[in-house]
Design brief:
Elements (H helix, E strand, L loop, with lengths): L1 H24 L27 H15 L59 E5 L12 E5 L5 H13 L15
């Protein structure tokens, strides 16, 4: 009789181990959250603009340079809520940032700039043009791409995109095509 009890205990222990193994294999349930879901990504189109090798090289050099740049913040912006992070030149007589003490942050200088040939161009090589209405799209060259202003409503944005598609002009911030689906 004692042997039967031992066998039953061992069988229960094995069943418990199997159940625990199954629970571990299951994906953990996501905890309840009040965060809004992130919007779907914008559709990404390949650039059809033909760039010469030098411009392509300069765009890549600018990208690498900007990735290694320091953050230029206003002095003491992290200490006071009323100060924005946006850059302001330090002008104080005793200001350590103005005196370029290393630990106090970097100052904007000429050497941090991007190459002059690609300055102001979009990363894809297009020249950006800000558009507010469908009539603004007419008369643009193939080297220019449009960016629809943020104050333009959805209805007018759809009209602008329709005109741009007819004229074969790239839109840098199209409406999210996946929203309707």
């Amino acid at each position: 009789m004692a042997e039967n009890d031992v066998e039953k205990v061992e069988a229960k222990a094995e069943e418990k181990a199997e159940v625990e193994a199954k629970e571990q294999k299951k994906a953990p349930e996501k905890p309840f959250t009040t965060k809004k879901p992130r919007p779907l990504p914008r559709p990404v189109e390949k650039s059809t603009l033909e760039l010469d090798e030098e411009t392509r090289r300069l765009l890549n050099a600018r990208k690498a340079n900007k990735a290694s740049l320091p953050k230029f913040h206003r002095i003491d912006a992290h200490k006071k809520k009323k100060l924005a992070l946006s850059w302001r030149k330090p002008r104080g007589h005793h200001c350590k940032m103005r005196r370029q003490i290393k630990a106090k942050g970097s100052i904007v200088k000429v050497g941090f700039g991007s190459p002059a040939a690609v300055r102001g161009l979009h990363a894809s090589g297009y020249e950006e043009v800000l558009v507010y209405r469908p009539e603004d799209v007419h008369g643009l060259s193939k080297r220019q791409a449009i960016r629809i202003a943020r104050t333009v409503g959805r209805k007018k944005q759809e009209e602008i995109e329709k005109v741009a598609k007819e004229l074969n002009i790239k839109v840098l911030n199209p409406l999210n095509a996946f929203e309707e689906a």
